[in-house]
Design a protein that fits this description.
It is built from six helices and no strands. By secondary structure, it is mainly alpha-helical. It has two domains: 49 residues, no CATH class; 27 residues.
């Protein structure tokens, strides 16, 4: 549902391209950035729907936390 709401913007963007032309709307809207945003939004929805955290379990979460604690400790010890 979230992805459908995001993709509904295609209707308005295509209408503006039809009215004013691609070159003008590319400059006005930054279509490349909007396409990148849509692609990343869809990728995020796919990752969320596939439940990556449940599939890989807590191992990656614990690894990320341990790296963060280690990096923080190194930053604190180097600052003194």
């Amino acid at each position: 549902m979230h992805t459908c709401f995001g993709l509904s913007a295609v209707l308005f963007i295509s209408h503006s391209i039809f009215l004013y032309g691609f070159a003008i709307q590319k400059r006005r809207l930054g279509i490349e950035w909007m396409a990148l945003m849509a692609l990343l939004n869809i990728a995020g929805a796919v990752v969320y729907a596939s439940r990556v955290r449940i599939v890989f379990g807590d191992a990656l979460f614990r690894l990320a936390c341990s790296l963060q604690v280690t990096d923080t400790g190194a930053l604190v010890s180097n600052s003194f």
